[in-house]
Amino acid sequence: MRIAAVTAFLVLVTVTSSAVADNWTHWRGPTGNGAAPQATPPTEWSTTKNVKWKVPIAGRGISSPIIWEQQVFVVTAAPVGEASGAGLPKLEFKVICLNRQDGKLVWEKTATVAIPHQETHNTNGFASASPCTDGKHVYAHFGSRGLYCYTIDGELKWKRDDFGQMQTLNRFGEGSSPTLEGDKILVPWDHQGPSALYALNKLTGETIWKADREEPTCWSTPLVVEHAGRKQVIMNGSNFARSYDLESGKEIWKCSGQTKRPVASPIHLDEMVIVGSGFQGAYMGAFRLDGNGDIKGSDKVVWTIDHDCPDIASPALSSGRIYFHKGKSGLLSCVDATTGKGHYFARRIDGVDSTYGSPVAAGGYVFLSSRSGHIVVIKDSPEFEVVATNNIEETLSATPAPVDNELFIRGENNLYCIAKAK
């Protein structure tokens, strides 16, 4: 009986791990690195070619879609009613579930209706954080409007709308996405007021710990990694890149060098994490996970780069290589993740100029999106080679999601499922 129980447990773990790997449960994908190792989406499409379905989504398309089995989830803030006296819109903050096969609506829930307390950047929206799921629940983070937990079938389980109101730098707006790990959901809360990182019980929404952060506005997403049996939460920041103990929230190590108002999220490779920023400066560093305290200048800093670093789009890691854009531009760099040495730097790409969406890797290719609506596909290789240039002909700010043989693209106005025509 004991052997049977162990065998059943191992099968369950294997099936669960495989299910997560075959889905896109978070805007940085199953690895946290912007890669889908098992996916093989098409490399060519147009507004008509290889479009399995296209569905309009009300509200600006900033947040990225996530996929679990046959369900596709997006969030939005759709205008409703008259604008306030200050000119800010009254918005319905919604969670939408679509059928993956045909794009038809499965369920739609309005989390709240509110007038934002603060403006946002003219290229940003008011529902910019991407949702996440563990296959049982879907979590939608609307920042100052709250965090909402729904069952996979659309039943509201709990909400937290008591975090307060963010005051973001230069009124650029909100957008940090939460991260699920084990029984916790990690909620970043960096702004011009008291900043913090929260760990909540994902089943109840209750606070497990709160780590106060001496950081101004940051739009990065937490990354969870493991070293020597201990899980760490890695966060970007204007003052320091930091690591926190997942169980207690206590700071483990930190390293200064990041630039003003970071947006790019961390990535990881084996015993290292890589954190970068590229606004009003440039810095990318690879840090060993066995550090303690302030590690700047120590051997815990494996390598650094001081030019062409990413700003809004996060780097992607695939096949031991890091792909990233310079600032908000389309200039692409590719470096060896272990050494930081460049295969190429600041390579200009026709069709890719202003970048908000992050590179994603799948099927031996890397997909590079531009706000112009172009997605250029290159080989996942140390040599730069363009395979295809595609255009959805609408503004594109969200990161695409490759799952199995499909690619899900959230445009400014529509959500696309790209798949080879049968």
Task: Write structural notes for this entry.
The protein has one helix at 2-21, and strands at residues 35-36, 51-56, 66-68, 71-79, 91-99, 105-114, 132-133, 137-141, 147-151, 156-160, 179-181, 184-189, 195-201, 207-213, 223-227, 230-235, 241-245, 251-255, 267-269, 272-277, 283-288, 293-294, 301-305, 316-318, 321-325, 332-336, 342-347, 360-362, 365-369, 374-379, 386-391, 401-403, 406-410, 414-419. Mean pLDDT is 94; it is low at 1-18. The strands form 8 sheets. It has a 5-stranded mixed β-sheet, with no helix packed on it. The protein has a 5-stranded mixed β-sheet with strand order 15-16-17-18-22, with no helix packed on it. The chain has a 4-stranded antiparallel β-sheet with strand order 2-34-33-32, with no helix packed on it. It contains 1 helix and 34 strands. It has 422 residues and is mainly β. The chain is 5% helix and 41% strand. It has one domain (2-419): YVTN repeat-like/Quinoprotein amine dehydrogenase (Methylamine Dehydrogenase, Chain H), CATH 2.130.10.10.
Give a short synopsis of this structure.
The protein has 422 residues and is mainly β. The protein has one helix at residues 2-21, and strands at residues 35-36, 51-56, 66-68, 71-79, 91-99, 105-114, 132-133, 137-141, 147-151, 156-160, 179-181, 184-189, 195-201, 207-213, 223-227, 230-235, 241-245, 251-255, 267-269, 272-277, 283-288, 293-294, 301-305, 316-318, 321-325, 332-336, 342-347, 360-362, 365-369, 374-379, 386-391, 401-403, 406-410, 414-419. The protein has a single domain, classed as Methylamine Dehydrogenase, Chain H (7 Propeller).
